[in-house]
Write a structure and sequence with these properties.
By secondary structure, the chain is α+β, with helices and mostly antiparallel strands. The protein contains 12 helices and 11 strands. A hairpin with a 5-residue loop joins strand 6 and strand 7. The longest helix is centred in the middle third of the chain and has 20 residues, at 157-176. The chain is globular. Mean pLDDT is 88; it is low at 178-186.
Length: 298
């Protein structure tokens, strides 16, 4: 999805731009976060072959959105509201934001990839647009994804990818009023062979980026079923397990070697010492330096 058709923005003031635009890509999913702090009016438009799901943190003095040939919908206080349109459904409109920091996060889903991951739920369903709606579970997932995408110290692509896939599942739940019985009742875990291969794969790559695609491929499962099976077997989601293994490897290096903390961070898959320090403290309760001092001293 490198060439995904994204939401286009055209500001009334030609020199205005968003304050922030962050994009993350995974297999079949693209996530984009945009933040605007100025009050310049802007027009927006989208039409493409992907599912489109947006979480709004917007307060508009005025504005309007048109989805295909439906009646135009006025703007207003759109905080915590969401918008969904299926593939090849067009969105056009304009917005006049009030004087505050406004933002929105958009997920684009490839229909074929989502159909494969969710046992063809998306390929057979007749999806209808949902404009300025709310759903607690879906909103919570999108907020978590937005938090990872906008946090400069976050370093957990595996977690973000899992959240993106979960958002697709929760959206389908809204469209179909519940997953089919065959999927709801499917709670089996990994086989002993799958678990061994996945554990070994993780241990061999703790210093590298580990994607949900990679882990699911080792187990020969879709990402959705792999994430469910992994948690059923190990009692926690893949991103949490990987993070714990990174920290355990780091603790071992802190005790056995005199490597600088920055080198240990890089060797265990963290992009910076600050990200490593934060993750280490969250799981261990102290910083790496304090852990090294107290453990070696003991």
């Amino acid at each position: 999805m490198d060439d995904v058709a994204a939401l286009s923005l055209r500001f009334k003031k030609a020199d205005e731009r968003p304050d922030m635009q962050r994009i993350a890509r995974w297999s079949g999913i693209v996530c984009e976060h945009t933040r605007i702090s100025h009050q310049s009016d802007y027009a927006f438009a989208f039409s493409g072959p992907t599912h489109y799901l947006a979480l709004h943190d917007l307060v508009l003095a005025d504005g309007s959105m048109l989805v295909d040939d439906l009646k135009p919908i006025p703007g207003g206080d759109l905080r915590n509201k969401m918008t969904y349109v299926p593939p090849h459904c067009s969105i056009t409109g304009w917005a006049s934001p009030i004087d505050r920091t406004n933002s929105f996060t958009v997920l684009y889903f490839d229909p074929a990839a989502i159909a494969e991951e969710t046992e063809r739920l998306y390929s057979s369903a007749d999806h209808a647009p949902l404009i300025y709606f709310d759903d607690t579970a879906l909103r919570s997932t999108l907020l978590k994804l937005q938090g990872v995408l906008t946090d400069d110290t976050a370093d957990d692509g595996l977690y973000a990818e899992t959240l993106g896939l979960l958002a697709a599942i929760e959206l389908q739940r809204l469209q179909s009023r519940g997953l089919p019985e065959s999927v709801r009742n499917r709670t089996g875990g990994l086989s002993a062979g799958q678990e061994k291969l996945v554990r070994e794969f993780i241990e061999d790559r703790l210093g590298e980026e580990i994607r949900l695609d990679d882990l699911a491929g080792v187990a020969r499962l879709s990402r959705f079923h792999f994430a469910r099976a992994f948690k059923a077997t190990l009692g926690e989601p893949p991103h949490r397990y990987v993070m714990k293994r990174r920290i355990e490897r780091a603790k071992d290096l802190l005790v056995r070697t005199s490597l600088p903390v920055s080198e240990i961070a890089a060797a265990t898959g963290f992009r910076s010492a600050s990200q490593f320090n934060r993750a280490f403290r969250e799981l261990v309760g102290v910083t790496p330096s304090i852990c090294r001092r107290t453990t070696v001293g003991a």
